[in-house]
Amino acid sequence: MKKLLNTVYVTTEGAALKKDGENLVAEIEGSEKARVPLHMVASVVTFGPIFVSPALIGTCAERGITIALMDRIGRFQARIEGPVSGNVLLRRAQYRTADDAVDVVRSIVLGKLANQRAVIRRGLRDYGDEMAAPVRDALERASDRIEMILRRVQVKDDSIDLLRGAEGEAATLYFGVFNHLIRSPDATLHWTGRSRRPPLDPMNALLSFLYTLLTHDCRSACEAVGLDPAVGFLHRDRPGRPSLALDLMEELRAPLADRLALSLVNRRQLRAGDFRQMDNGAVLLTDEARKTVLTAWQERKKEERLHPFLNEKAPFGLVPYLQAQMLARHLRGDIEAYPPWFWS
Amino acid sequence: MGAEEDAIPLSALQHAVYCLRQAALIHLERLWVANRFTAEGDVLHAVADKGGARRARGVRRVMSLPLASARLNLIGTADLVEFIPGPAGEVAFPVEYKRGKPKLHRADEVQLCAQALCLEEMTGQPVPEGALFYAHTKRRVTVPFDTELRALTQNAAQSLADILASRITPAPTAHKSRCRACSLHEACRPETYARPVLAWRDQMLARSLKDISE
Questions:
Q1: A128-160 pLDDT, tens per residue?
Q2: What is the pLDDT of residue A293?
Q3: Which of A16, A195, B85, B156 would disulfide-bridge A51, Cβ 3.0–4.6 Å?
């Protein structure tokens, strides 16, 4: 099994990243704060004004370590990549399939819906007994309705637009009951519906931040197996959008990002004070809270699960890579369909 | 004819004999995963790749000799070719350096034989035998280029040419033991090849809906 290597996240403004021999070194105000051997690093993600030395950029490009630059609030700015690893036949197959991708999209949507439903079921299983009857009923109803959509997607929906519609319907149901999965007594942490660009409340700020991290990992996974991250199946092409990375992410959002957000809030590792509101209404994580999230994210990625299709144990962090690989093998004709990743 | 960039590298033949899928993953899909074995091979070849010629006991030794065959559309480099004086002029004797020890399969012999076919085409003289030098045993194994080995080599070249032309990556080898030692195992995922995904997907969904609902 491929080794899960580290992603180095740098959030301290004014930090400097340099190469020293075979190591990546982080300095703050001229003194060394961290040192990581480069052979243990898969990618580097910086937030805000961070200096990255030319020598480090060169070495990372050469070794396939990607560097992603985010702005202070975690919005993607740029990415530095070495020569694209070339499997031109795979990319051609990807482009051809993208024009008629019902099959791949069906797998993605099935995986996404099953996993959203599993997150609701998990909430019921863990806290159902403590819930008021109407709350429990609401969760049961959402779960049942997502199940109905799932069955329809499985046998009936036969156009990409129908599949996109099904995905949207399920998302409305899922986020419609998401608040019931939040156990924190903190009223400011309650769910008021999905908002992005900018996120308007703490839960949305947290989800957006986690989705950014997951997008980065999915995008790197596409690159690693030679897929073009910009050409998607479920997501329509749009210049600058990593559509395939977003496709790959769909089945992983609920179990990887949403569940982590819920557990951070439910275990009170994050509280109202960990968020601040800007003048435009946008809500952001504080620097300290961001570190808490990044640490939890890294830990989550190390947790091992049985990969349902490969029947092998794999850390969560490798799932995007394994799924990208399965997609690539499907596009090259090895297997008849893309096997979704079912969380259980 | 065959444009030069379409020529098949000699080293691909040993992959083709070992497993046609492995050859396709490397030469068609450009997936290559370095591991200890390939790294050792690289070190070994760095020694042989110094190039140049020298003479020992009347034998002319040429290192890193470029080779090609227009007939088989092959191109590559011989680690070492010895030109041994004989009554009818020099006789070429290719020597290939290999890590490890002699193997049960004939991939190394095929690669060497392909060099001989190139040399015959280039010099117009017969090349009756060559040798494989194994780093582990530090011994040369003499390989006669008999009819059987020549046929095996030409078949490997043809199968590989067909695959590169079709652009379809074939099924994994039936020899499971070869998969275990293969450096491309993880990129290849032979155990998933041709697995029925749709039936599996339905089964997983049924289980997911049943398990959690009750």
A1: 788 888 999 999 999 999 999 999 999 987 899
A2: 94
A3: A16
- For residue B11, what is the enclosing H or E element? helix B10-18
Structure tokens at B180: 């275990």
Among A330, A203, A329, smallest CA distance to A264 is for A203
Record: contact B189-A330, CB cut-off 8 A: no
Q: Say if CB B185 and CB A310 are below 8 A apart.
A: no
Report pTM.
Answer: 0.85
Q: Is A59 strand, coil or helix? A: helix
Closest CB from A90, A125, A335 relative to B197: A335
As a whole number of angstroms, the longest Cα–Cα distance in chain B is: 88
Judged by phi (left if over 0) then psi (alpha if -120 to 50, else beta), residue B64 lies in left
Beta carbons of A308 and B204 less than 8 Å apart: yes
- Which residues does chain A have within 8 Å of residue B198's beta carbon, measured at their own beta carbons? 336-337
Regions of chain B where pLDDT drops below 50: 1-4, 34-37, 212-214
> Which residues numbered 28-47 in B keep a CB inside 8 Å of some CB on A?
28-31
Q: What is the distance, to the nearest Å, from the Cα of residue B75 to the centroid of all Cα atoms in its chain?
A: 12
The pLDDT tens digits of the residues spanning A65-96 come to 889 998 877 778 888 887 766 688 899 999 99
Q: Which two tokens stand for residue B34?
A: 């370095």
Unique residue bearing structure tokens 């939890």: A296
Residue type for position A337: A
Q: Do A69 and A77 meet the contact criterion of CB atoms below 8 Å apart? A: yes
Closest-CA residue to A275 (of A192, A163, A186, A157): A186
Beta bridge partners of B131: B95, B142
Residue closest to B149 by CA, chosen among B106, B92, B191: B106
Task: Name the one residue in this structure whose structure tokens are 């006669």.
Answer: B144
The Cα–Cα gap between A156 and B13 comes to 48
Beta strands in A104-194 (DSSP E): none
pLDDT at A1 over 80: no
Q: Which two tokens stand for residue A295?
A: 């640490």
pLDDT, average across residues A5-24: 89
Under 8 Å between Cβ of A94 and A101: no
Q: Which strands, in side-by-side order, build the sheet including A76-80?
A: A6-10, A41-47, A66-70, A76-80
Chain-chain contact of B200 with A89 (C-beta, under 8 angstroms): no
Chain B interface test: which of A334, A336, A338, A342 (most B C-beta within 10 Å): A334
Distance CA A275, CA A292 (A): 12
